[in-house]
Structure prediction request, 193 residues.
Amino acid sequence: MKFTLSERLFRLVLRLYPVQHRDDYGDAMAQHFRDMCREAYDRQGRRGLVKTWIKGVIDTLRNAPVEQWTAIQAGGIMRTKTMVVIVLALIGSGFTGYIDSHASEVQATLMVMLPITFSLGFIQPKRAWLWALIVGLSVPVSYLLVLVSGAHYNNPPPNGFTTLIALVPAFVGTYCGVAFRKILSLTMQPNHS
Prediction:
């Protein structure tokens, strides 16, 4: 089994690190993750692969903000506003994942996800794709966490890949927030006629 897809997807996760950090260590980190996926799959099959992904994402979510803060202190690119929005997106992601794993209908998840993604897109439209990914991936990640931990999922999907459909409303909500901000800024401009 080839693990190039895992490596490519993990490179997207690595986008949470500052550019300089990715330039210096990104290739080595992606290769290491690919090797870990291969070893875990050889030892435990899909369950090992899922555990490796969860560990890799958690490590990134723990370490990327530290690297971003270091880059900010060194005069790096990412500003404090972006860091605040990343924290808000992670909190919203955790809340969305929790609701999804405990809800019996998809509407509950959407009622939480759409306002969160809309707000994130409105607050900082520049990285709208990132906010949509962070919140949208909360549904499949929560499903995997419940699956690996053996806990009870209130309304499990027929297969795990269907949880990726949560990316669609996440992107729709985020880009609606971006569009609303653009419309609002156009209406607030003074009329020079």
